[in-house]
Description:
Blueprint: H1 2-23, H2 26-32, E1 40-42, H3 52-63, E2 72-81, E3 84-93, E4 96-107, E5 110-120, H4 132-135
Amino acid sequence: MARGRENEKILFANEAFYAAFASGDVEAMNNVWAEDAPVVCLHPGATPIYDRAEIMRSWDHILSDPGVSDMQMHSPRVLTYGDVALVICYETLGGGTLIATNAFVREGGQWRMVSHQAGPCPDAPEDDDMDDDEAGPSLH
């Protein structure tokens, strides 16, 4: 059961990321990202950003677009190893679907994001293509 509770915490951190994204909340996005661990962000079609301050500036720019409120995440799957976790999920925005890998580490007793990478995924499953045990919570 401990693994189940830990997965819930990881999924909660992932949900916090997408809630900040969909609401355009830069402060909430800042709170999701790790402060001590190395970080990287790979926005679709862009080069990696390794500097936390630059990552936050990129999110400030992205979140200022009113269209981000249409962002939806679905079908998250958690992989953990000690204090490191990956969440593989799908993002839908503007009629397109991306697959995302979000990495988290335990920092200060909380799961904090250290990496976000998203890219095109033409054959993404629909939310109801996965059973409830696999999908976990979603934003919609």
